[in-house]
Specification:
The protein has 4 helices and 2 strands, in the order H-H-E-E-H-H. The protein is mainly alpha-helical and 81 residues long. Strands 1-2 form a two-stranded antiparallel sheet. A hairpin with a 6-residue loop joins strand 1 and strand 2.
Length: 81
Amino acid sequence: NNRKLTVEKHFDKKLNYALLNESGRKIFISEFEDRINQTFEHPKLKRRVTYKQAIRLDAYKLIKHIMEGKEFQVFNMEKKL
C-alpha cells in the first residue's frame, strides 16, 4: 500500500516474481509487525487493544465454539467503523 515493495527490487526473478527475496521479506515482516502491534478501540471491550490481541481473542472464541458449542462470531473491522 505504501509502495515500499517493488517487483524489480524485492521479488525473485527465477520464480517468475512469485516469491519475495531476502530484502523484500525483511521489509514485509517489519511492516507486518508494525501493523499488528497498532492499537484501536475495541467496540465491545471499550478499551484499546492491538490487532494481535484481537486475533488471540477470536482464537479463544473459536475454541469455546468447538469445545462448548458457544456461538462464534468473528471480529470484523468493518463493523467497528
